[in-house]
Amino acid sequence: MNSHQIAMIAVMAVTVILLRALPMLVFGRQKRIPALLNYLGQVLTAGAIAMLVIYSLYGELDYLQVGFGRLGSVLIASALTVILQLCFRNPLVSILGGTGCFMILIQRIFV
């Protein structure tokens, strides 16, 4: 390994250690998480997921000129993902079901 690779590994290791230690350094021995952090944990998670969904669907709008095939596959697979999540409340089932549906639609049906 050359010095550049060693430096990169060292920087990554220090970063991971600092990120893991940061909560202990900031909050010390407090047993309770501050209310602000609980609030941000709830709001930012939903916001990040909404942003990812919008970004994913926005990228598919370019395919409208080509036809309904790819966009239709995305919309059907997205709807199935939502239905699976509402029924099973299991992210793994939802993600695998939606991805599998999309792959089947894009490869077999809407070619």
Task: Walk me through what this model shows.
- The chain has 111 residues and is mainly α.
- It is 81% helix and 0% strand.
- It has helices at residues 3-27, 35-59, 68-88, 91-109.
- Helix 3 (68-88) packs antiparallel against helix 4 (91-109).
- The protein is extended.
Question: What is the CA–CA distance across the termini?
Answer: 46 Å
What would you call the structural class?
A: mainly alpha
Residue ranges: pLDDT <50 for 5 or more in a row? none
- Average pLDDT, to the nearest integer? 87
Overall 3D geometry? extended
- Give me the Rg, rounded: 21 Å
Beta content comes to under 5%
Order of helices and strands: HHHH
Topology of this protein?
Blueprint: H1 3-27, H2 35-59, H3 68-88, H4 91-109
Helix pairs in contact: 3-4
Keywords:
single chain, 111 residues, mainly alpha, 4 helices, extended
Short description:
With about 110 residues, this protein is mostly helical. The chain contains four helices and no strands.
